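Friendly challenge for the regulars: who can give me the structure tokens for this chain first? No prize, just bragging rights.
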Amino acid sequence: MPDVRTLPFTSSSGAGNMAADEAMLVGAAEHAVASLRVYSWDTPTLSLGYFQEASIRKSDERLAHLPW
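First reply, four minutes later:
Bragging rights claimed.
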């Protein structure tokens, strides 16, 4: 059974949150350590999934001003 760690609540930029997610993925893959993380965004940020088109940001005026 893999180890599981609980991380403290944080608030960060979109880039900071995605970097933390990437670090958790690497940790899980290389060291068999699962992580649970609850977080928030410092500023509203558009977060796209791997298969979502970035053009959605330009086509929707409500999203056009958000960092991504």
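The mean pLDDT is 84. The chain has two helices and four strands. Your move, everyone else.
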